[in-house]
Fold each of these.
Amino acid sequence: MNQRPEVLLRRYHAWEHNTDKLDFQWRARLLQSLWRDEQGLTAGEYRGKIRGARLVMPEAKDTLANYLTPAIREVVRNEVEDPIRAQGKLYGRPRIYDNLLSSQPLCFNLFGELTLDLDLATEALRDMTAGRIARVVAIDFEYSPGRGDDRYTGDRSAFDVYVRYETPSRGTGFVGIEVKYHESLDDPVADHRPRYDEIAAEMDCFVPDQLHRLRERPLQQVWRDHLLVGAHQRVDEFEDAFFAFLYPEGNTACSNAVEQYGQCLSGSDSFEGWTLERLVACLATHSSAQWIRDLHHRYLDFSRLPR
């Protein structure tokens, strides 16, 4: 790990020596703190301390300042604040409003505009999948085909982003996407369920003597979402489906997990590791929209960090 610029981090209220264990994490926290400062937003407080990557509540909820465009803010109002549409969806409050590092706001900042421009979503995701996605039909957030339903995984797992698409043969398909940014994948593992082993056997894409690794950190969450894809495809009879794990290339916890996960697979058609950098580059190839540049500026332009 590179030596941290403590004076600089403290200046932007981003010194979190015990929380940020990865080199990427303190850099991401500083980048978000810089972005907040550029926007003229006041740093929020958490557990009695001013945090540079937080916004002040309840202003953050009232203004939705965590979101990049008016269109994205409207999508958030419709998806998160509408009690009917949000029913059963596990949006983290207040972090979806005030936490600049949270991956839930990133989901909306990345895919919110695409819900209103399915042509651009199609072009970018067609590139990401070498033509596997022929046409994007719909995009949803925090989606599960059936929380707690034993036909699926029987747990509360959901996809951060859910994209339904048409295949080149005009069949139905979907991709369930898990989005990470600052996370280190060190959350406690959930209780193992026999249903997981049943789905894994049905999917027939796992190396049998590696299954024990999938039940532990840091791979269990990835595995459970991947299993949800397999169950959803079979129960609801989709022609095609896969799980995508989306993360910044500098987050070594995520890149290492993707590498380890690949070692547990005997077939990779239903799993893909995507980087944020590659997806944003695909979007920029097909559109010059300002929101794409703003997204890159906020989340990925680490060249802006003062030296």
Amino acid sequence: MSLSDEELERYARHIVLREVGGVGQNRLKAANVAVVGAGGIGSAVIPALAGAGVGRLTIIDSDTVELANLHRQPLFKESDTGQPKAELAAAFVRKLNRHVEARPIQERIGSDNAAQLLAGHDLVIDGSDNFATRLAVSDSCVTLGIPLLSAAAVQFQGQVGLFRSKPCYRCFVGDAFDAEDCDNCAELGVIGALTGIVGNFAALLAIRHFVEFGDEVAGKLFLFDGLSLNFRTIRIPKEPACKTCGGSHAQGS
């Protein structure tokens, strides 16, 4: 796989970086990423990865655009209300970068279909808004051996973590959140700009994952407090009793 003259010009600001170069940009071009959720976090992740030249993006979301989405989901506009998010997000990618293949899946992901939808990807980025979906995605990633980037934002709090099977996301949250009725931002609220911070941070970790620069961050959770404007990091230990990875809860670092 090689970069065309147009791609060399497009990604020049990446390629000039010693940590990326042509080799790193080719790794991004070869990458196949599934993004679960084209909401607030997905609205930052998807443009960032498409702009960075990630070769294939699968966008999984069953929702349609609502007016209440627009304060934090700049992928969409008022006239998109009622239209499917996955299709609109894929169309955005194609307009932004014709070198990126975007595949929309207008389907709700859960324990019954997650393995089928996620198989074959190099990385999964989960920006969904409920624990039941997150755990279904995590469990399937462990089974499939696919690294998972989990990103969440609610009220003023954001978190991003990279999981490589052990510890897994279930080691962090335990088994209490498999139900569909757990809190999400629709009930608790979220400051719009926070989802952009979290989504772009997740995209940065995804680029680091493929290009392989910087220290290993798997098993760490990055927490951002939008009220105090502080970042902190906690390490997630393996949970020996975890029913998914057989490695519950995070400890400060």
